[in-house]
């Protein structure tokens, strides 16, 4: 599969279908993080609650982002201590990250323009959201290439030669 998703389709056909079904891990790479809601039954919950639920179920969550999350996201984050206490939740901040990607269980991935925000990936109304585009794919070779790159980023392989260390709040190496 290799499918173009536009605007709210990203939420409807990827986020709501695949993120919640993760069995092993979810890797999220984003430039911006703000509060974001998803539909759960007949109500809406913060996306961070879904991540905490996944961690509680034994799913590893890796979050790589470029800047500090918005205040409402941080407030919601603080409601879920398992995200601080569990080894299954990993988070790094790298100011050079501009990629927007989600990888689920090494079996399906999304790469596109949408950040981890309500107007990007969230359940916002179609007339209130950003104009976004991206691709969902399940090609093993492409997913492995993306995962290898994301792993190198997470492990700090790019840190030693980075020319932005002066603005990095927490260099990995």
What labels describe this entry?
173 residues; alpha+beta; Endonuclease, Chain A; seven-stranded mixed β-sheet; two-stranded antiparallel sheet; 28% helix; globular
Write the layout of secondary structure elements.
Blueprint: E1 2-6, H1 8-18, E2 25-30, E3 37-40, E4 43-46, H2 47-56, E5 60-65, H3 71-77, H4 82-85, E6 89-93, E7 101-104, E8 108-112, E9 133-137, H5 140-155
Parallel strand pairs: 2-5, 5-6
Antiparallel strand pairs: 1-9, 2-7, 3-4, 7-8, 8-9
Spatial gap, N to C terminus: 37 Å
Reading the helices and strands in chain order gives: EHEEEHEHHEEEEH
Structural class: alpha+beta
Number of domains: 1
Q: From the alpha-carbon coordinates, what is the Rg to the nearest angstrom?
A: 15 Å
How many helices? The count is: 5
How would you sum up the global shape? Answer: globular
Quantity of strands, as a count = 9
Task: Label the CATH architecture.
Answer: 2-Layer Sandwich
Largest sheet: 7 strands, mixed
CATH topology type: Endonuclease, Chain A
Question: Describe it for me?
Answer:
The protein contains 5 helices and 9 strands, in the order βαβββαβααββββα. By secondary structure, it is α+β, with helices and mostly antiparallel strands. The chain has a single domain, classed as Endonuclease Chain A (Endonuclease, Chain A). The strands form 2 sheets. It has a 7-stranded mixed sheet with strand order 1-9-8-7-2-5-6, with helices on both faces. The longest helix has 16 residues, at 140-155. The radius of gyration is 15 Å and the shape is globular.
């Amino acid at each position: 599969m290799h499918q173009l998703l536009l605007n709210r389709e990203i939420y409807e056909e990827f986020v709501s279908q695949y993120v919640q079904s993760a069995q092993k891990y979810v890797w999220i790479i984003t430039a911006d993080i703000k509060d974001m809601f998803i539909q759960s039954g007949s109500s809406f919950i913060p996306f961070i609650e879904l991540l905490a639920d996944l961690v509680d179920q034994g799913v590893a969550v890796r979050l790589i982002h470029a800047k500090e999350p918005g205040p409402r996201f941080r407030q919601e984050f603080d409601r879920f201590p398992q995200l601080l206490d569990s080894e299954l939740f990993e988070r790094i901040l790298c100011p050079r990250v501009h990629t927007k990607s989600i990888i689920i269980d090494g079996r399906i991935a999304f790469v596109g323009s949408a950040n981890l925000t309500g107007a990007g990936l969230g359940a916002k109304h179609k007339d209130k959201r950003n104009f976004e585009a991206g691709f969902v794919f399940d090609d093993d070779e492409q997913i492995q290439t993306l995962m290898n790159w994301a792993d190198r980023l997470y492990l700090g392989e790019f840190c030693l030669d980075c020319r932005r260390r002066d603005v990095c709040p927490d260099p990995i190496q």
